[in-house]
Amino acid sequence: MSEYIDTSDKIIWICRENIGRSQVAQALWETKYPGIASLSAGILVDKPGQKVGERPEAAILHSLLLDEYGIDISQNKRRSIQEFTPEALGKAALLVVLAEDAVITDSLREQPNTHLWEVLDMKETDSYQTLDIVRTIEKGLDAVVHQLPQHLQFLTMDGPAEAR
After folding, report:
1. How many of the other CB atoms lie within 10 Å of CB of 15?
2. What pLDDT, in 10s, does the model give residues 39-81?
3. Nearby residues of 113 by Cβ (< 8 Å), 6 or more positions away
4. 101 and 121 in contact (C-beta within 8 Å)?
5. Which residue of 16, 21, 58, 159 is surrounded by the most CB atoms within 10 Å?
6. What is the pTM of this model?
């Protein structure tokens, strides 16, 4: 039996394997908009619970995030979208899918709170291309704010910490 994961009023960032794009989006989001919690998951996760830093293909990404943003995702654990019930996905504020069209499931497409965002996979890129993708994700976060339910949009505005 899976553990209960509260998804209410959270953003769930989803990519193919929960190694790159969704991990980056979650880390950058939580740095920029700490008032709204988020989770990340992958559609095709081969080892749920594995630390992202244990994946050799993520080494360039880890270095870039540390150097450019001071963010360390190496200890983040990979999560499969299958750990969430359809009801839990429906309670999320937003499901942001940063995956290739071919791997996006019908159940994700059918959720009314799904936002599809085409972002290149970092798996086959060099450090310059990876940095460009990270910056694309960073710039796109502001657009995601406009997809949030109204009652959450105010949490993204600058203001006193108590208001967030």
Report:
1. 29
2. 999 999 999 999 999 998 888 888 888 888 999 999 999 999 9
3. 89, 90, 92, 93, 94, 95
4. no
5. 21
6. 0.85
